[in-house]
Amino acid sequence: MKPIAALSVTPEVYPLIKTGGLADVAGALPGALAAEHVELRTLCPGYRPVLAALENSKTVARFNELFGGPARVLAGRAGGLDLLAIDAPHLYDRDGGPYAGPDGRDFADNGFRFAALAKVGAEIGLGQIEGWRPRVVHAHDWQAGLTAAYLHYSGRPRPGSLITVHNLAFQGQFPAAVFPALGLPARAFSIEGVEYYGGVGFLKAGLQLADRVTTVSPTYAEEIQQGHSGMGLDGLLRMRGSQLAGVLNGIDTAVWNPETDPMIAAPFSAKKLAARAENKKALQARMGLAHAPDRLLIGVVSRLSWQKGLDLLLACLNFFDEHNAQLVLLGTGDPALEAAFQDAARQHPGRIAVHFAYEEPLAHLIQAGSDAILVPSRFEPCGLTQLCAMRYGAVPVVSRVGGLADSIIDANEMAIHANCATGLQFSPVTSEALAGALRRCATLHARKAVWKKVQLNGLKTNVSWSIPARHYAALYREVAPA
Amino acid sequence: MIPEKLLPGSPEPLGLSLVEGGANVAVYSEAAQGIELCLFDSSGRKELARLALPGRTGPVFHGFAPHISAGMRYGLRAYGPWRPAQGLRFNPKKLLFDPFALALDGPIQLHDSLFDADSDSGPFAPKAVAAAPRLARPRRRAIPWPETVIYETHVRGFTRLLDAVPEALRGTFAGLAHPAAMDHLSRLGVTTLELMPCAGWIDERHLRAAGLTNYWGYNPIAFCAPDPRLAPGGWREVRESVAALQEAGFEVLIDAVLNHSGESDAKGPTVSLRGLDNATFYRLDPADPAAYVNDAGCGNILRLDHPAVVRLAMDSLRAWALYGGVDGFRFDLATTLGRRADGFDPHAPLLAAIAQDPLLRELKLIAEPWDIGPGGYQLGAFPASWGEWNDHFRDAARKFWRGDPGMIGEVATRVAGSSDQFAGRKPPSRGVNFVTAHDGFTLADLVSFERKHNEANDEGGRDGTDCNYSWNNGVEGETADEAIRAARRRDQRNLLALLLLAHGTPMLSMGAEQGHSQNGNNNAYCQDGEIGWLDWRKADPGLTAFTAAVIALRKATPALGQDRYLTGAPRDDGGPADVEWRGADGEILQPAQWREDERRFLAGFFTTDASRAGLLFNAGHEEAHFRLPSPSRGHFWRRALDTGVEDGNGDGAGFDGDEILVVAPRSTLVLIDTAEPETPRAASPATLDALAQAAGLAPDWHDVKGARHIVPEATTTALLKAMGLPATTQAEARASLTRLADQRDRRALPFALVACENEKIEAPLVLAEPRAELELEDEFSARRRLSLGADSLRAEKRRACDGVAFVVQVATLPALPIGRYTLTLDGQTCALIVAPSACAWPPALDARVSGVAAQVYSLRRDGDQGIGDFTSLAELAERAGAAGYATVGINPLHTLFARDRERASPYYPSDRNFLDPITLDLETLGEITGLPCDLTPEERAAARELAEKPDVDYPAVWALKAQKIAAHFSAFEQAARKTPALPAAREFENFIAEGGERLQAFASFEILSRGRNISQRAILFEQFLCDRQFARAAARGRAAGLSLGFYRDLAVGAAPDGGEVAAERGLFLPGVSVGAPPDPIAETGQNWGLPPPDPLAMARDGYKTFATLLRANMRHAGALRIDHVMALQRLFVVPNGAPATQGAYLSYPLDDLVGVLALESFRARCLVVGEDLGTVPAGFREKMAPANVLSYRVLWFERSGDDFAPPEAYPQKAVACASTHDLPTLAGWRLGADIDEKAALGLMTPEAAEKERARRAADIARLLKALAAQGLAPTNPASDEDFAAAIHAYVAKTPSALAMIQVDDLLSEKIAVNLPGTDRERRNWRRKLSREIGALPPLPRG
User: Fold this and answer.
1) Full-prediction pTM beyond 0.80?
2) A136 and which of A6, B323, B512, B1102 could share a cystine (Cβ 3.0–4.6 Å)?
3) Do residues B602 and B411 touch, judged by C-beta distance below 8 A?
4) What is the CATH number of the domain that holds A378?
5) In this complex, is the C-beta atom of B187 within 8 Å of any C-beta atom belonging to chain A?
6) DSSP codes of every residue in B1234-1259
7) Is the bond preceding residue B1080 a cis peptide, omega within 30 degrees?
């Protein structure tokens, strides 16, 4: 296969700077795409932790004026990645996170901070770096949204462009007053360009002008073309429908590996599935649940928010009494939800246990020790928990939305018969449907042989980055200029 | 329908030919008694009929079989005697394959019945299939030889594991022609595929036992039929696949095995020729016709000088050309093709037949020009149009990169096209260069294995050559050691580059571009599996991209791979020869050098009219530093390839002639002579960074809030230009870098070396050999020689700023006393300074002492001439001494501008080495000269008038003084002429002599500058008077008890239009000013208008000028304050015209400068105070304290939080003071006089002023709190005197060695002499004290 050079333009990249799943994707793609003969370099802002991690850096480009000051692009390795970092201290060298200051307020100049990211991404795409010219520029989320616009309006032969929407809820909307400073031609301020409801829409610009638009699951790609999930961009997304694709994320199967995971009580594998019981025992002990090898144990690892649908679970708690089942919940978030679950735990000692924190080792143990993992999200662009669950032999019970719909095959009788079921789905996202799914889960759990088959199907499912990487590589090759 | 009998038929054509109504069969056999045609059913097992060929014409048996049509399976049986001793081996039990047959019914399988004498082999022997293939369409245009790049590949192995090819097609011709396979080859850029044997072949019998099969196919039976394993679709598949490949731009050559057949030796199977006519087809041993001549090493050889065998060979070749449409052939063991009974003959029948064949002679024909028979090695002997595999190239390339000694001559011959083998016979392109071929190691294995590992072949390791010229880079076979893996990747790239860039036609072997490994198997002929197949999953895409890039480079560069032999002769027009061979240093290799065994570096520069390129091969383990020859006019050398870096692709960096290029160990570098673009390439960011770093320019800076700022490129470029290091274009930048490296890093001796007393003195020397004769000269011109041998030198590897590594011989010099020395080596000198470890610590500082500070010009005394003068200073010193002070601190008394007396700032002087004569007291001139010098009443009146003014009226004062001094000078000169023994006259002459050239230069500048009629000596006289009056003042102070003496002040720089910069041109950076980055006081930064010293020039100067300056300012002083002492480490410099926000830090050799300072301080017994206010670099103060450079701590700035730091928080090695000339006076501060002033001048808005006043009030409260905490609250807070006294007592309480107070504060002055940030708005540096200083209040330090 023909090697192809590509540039990933991202505001976050794991393990250097992370606030969300985008960082994981940006961090995983270069390695996964290497196997697809894609040489992917990553461009990100030179935040302090990024510059501190950069080794053997070398200046590869300079900008005398980049939104208020001189800047340079440093190339080097950091966090195992081949990184290009924008050293623009006036934009990025400051206290706080990537988007907000220590006071938690968004930086007032975020528009310029990320216009700069896009501008530099585009310039590199157009050949700014001597000796390296990507044939594809892949932008992530609104922060890199203007990349496609800068490429489009450069009027020069340009690389192919791609934008991936990880979360449509953040759109990068700025007042029209920023437009003159962006350095785009006047005609760009139009409905065919970057204009959006009278202002400048960074994400909108990307969706409008990139050669391809992807989001993190096929179902989410469909959903966001509908009015209620499109967050105002559904019309544009429908128009771009033929260039819109969903590519499910993968997980790091080296970190999530039940055969080697040091955070779980006992290693196991598809061949040694019986060893899983040790983890269940350890989990029950750790969480103060009754030790009961045969009782259905349902795990939840989730942010406690409306999006994640856990309020629905509160309406189904009698299920655990009726079916003598157990519930383990790990996560933080909405104080009202925390309080409600705290109550539930008090009222069901030995049966419901909760832990309001995010602890990576406990998350692993829950995946390894629960019989089922519940993900009742109202919307879920991709979702990660259900992929980890499959990898760890826990049966995912999920709402039929977004990436959950795409990654789990419902254990209906046909699927059981065809031996391809990997979990349970329910729809619509209501407490009634959720209660039904829990009852189905209990029934299925009682059918020991079938349950084991579903577990094994999950364990066999490839949830690594190799499949998404193939998709992205194919998209790159489609958009790369001849 | 099966015919019952045959009709006579025709003797031509040979073999079975389908015609209308049936098939004609003709079989050649000179010795058979009868031939039968045997027809088989579709399974090939059941023999349906045996039909004797009824006709015979000479040696040809023939018959016509009616009803036979395409697809009929058939064989032959031959009747005749079984008399091996006579070469006759007929046996009708053996079913024989028609050697002219055009199709096979399936892969040929071995079976016992093919070997034994008795069983019928009919069901098991291969069957021919009647066929009438369509003709391939006429051939497309051939690719000319000089444009050819051959890729040797195996039809099966190439795609067997290529997932992108549909499963059913993998391993076949159709698979090879699949777009996924062709795409790889297209990208690679190869032009011509050489396919390993494709004719139907049989396994060797020994492989059966091992469960192996023949994979390569060098064992043919069906010469005229494609093997069904490779072409299940027969000729149709071959034809269509070849057409598709040709359509995609490739030529297709077939490896034709005509030297032997698969029937092997006497024990081999009887399948075809052996049974048909053994003695005709095979060359038998004349002495024992039962035995076969074995010149091919395969059991038999074909008798290719016999017409029947020539006919078979020709029909076979024509079949591939006609039905397959191929573009040519590679002939396996081709010497056999030209063998006659008495040896090789280039005009032998088969070679002659090919040469006259209208179809074949046009094709690309390549000989493997050897076999193992006698006289078998025939490289260069094949017909001129033929290509020939060049094993000399293979061996030379391998040995050179293995690192064998003495290979450069051989490898140069190979790179230049092997004229020794081919010149006069054929052009270089007919030599087919290769490093690896199917036979032997793969490229990856060649650099990973020292020995073959053929265990998988099950021949006990006996097969395969032992002569591999291979190496393993440290570990035999696979390893996880990344260093070894990297070395192997690099070696593969080196070999590929050599192969693909040499003159001659290159041939890659399958997988060489992907790092394909056979796990050390160098004879994978029987490895039809993962060893032999190309494993695409393990492919190294980087190597593939590299290979493609090198091929593209070859195609794009006419000077590489030329199709002519080079002469090396100089050209008439004086241009470079067509080839120049150069050594590692870049010089042309001399004849004797070619024979040096240890040379492992070779550079070839190739020139044609249109193109020039350099190939640099470094097979050694040391990096080479290659001085580049000049590129063509208006061109530069573009680095197009560099295997010294991981991906191997060149970075496109440009270089000029005479630049030094680093050639990494074991690497190949390609330089292309490239036209400079119309607009020269701007310096690349990386080069600019390297140059800036080497010059000491920081890439960024932090402001007081900690925010980092990147230095704009324009600033860096401007500063570099000022430093004599232009870097606007890439060429300039590179040249500057090289020059800097040459002049500084690679200098035989450093320009200056500052060592510390009692420490080892180490001198880094750059020597051709590890020995040196150094000359050491001290300050008294005493010389000694230091002979240094290898034992007193320590080699150290260093890297110069241009990236070139070099060896420094560090010499340890004998211990030397404190002082200055000069080291000389080969005419180059080095200033050696042996300094004390710290600056002087005068005995006066054994106790904590105090001092008063004054601006000399502001002092009033009865009888002054409108300005404070040396006499005013002497009086102050006496009062201070009487009051117990140790020192009097004064402003800089540097020469200002006599031509423009409005320029009054002591910190913006004309020349810091000299004093300003405006400080002279006219009344006491006579004390020095011994001549009367009374003021006239008019002068006295004028003086009185000036003395009464509140401010110094510099122009008027100077007008008065200049005139009087001039008059006194005339009188002095007259007296001296009259009385040569006049003591003052002698003193004056001594003063002039001591002042040397620098004093003369100063005087010259002053004459020009003042622009009026004044003599040089008059200027010198002024300086003489100043020095003497200053000395007298100092003496008066000492006598009055001033234990430390004067505490002078050295400004940070001199005005760009002043005498110092004029006299020391070259030591200051032109067009650049010192300044300060933005801070809260000056938000847009500051530009001080002072040119910074050039750090490179300072070192070149051996720091002499710096030392002279220190010495001049330590004169008549017990202490020297160095303004902005951070300048020893770095200065914020700003190009003129740029705002101060666009400056950059320039670094200075701190350790050296501190050493020089310590030496001067030691010699002058002068304490050093470093004014370290403002932005102080981290770690700086920690360096100054042990060097006894006192820190300068001002009460206002010493805080803990917002509160004033308590006295005990002050460091001991410090000067503590309440205020400075740049700050409000204490009284002024308390009043907010400075705020009022700023507000009045519009420097502050009324609102800001109001805020500032509020802040001031809070600060005053804090200060009073701090004072109270020390029990020092002023008795009368409203009294300025009490307020100042309390603060002074506070300062006096600190543990700091010296506490200073300002006379301004003793007199409760309210207005500061200077308001920083103002210039024209305010008359700074003029305000006189309001009254004369009387007795000073003591400042006890108890």
Assistant:
1) no
2) A6
3) yes
4) 3.40.50.2000
5) yes
6) HHHHHHHHTSS-HHHHHHHHHHHHHH
7) no
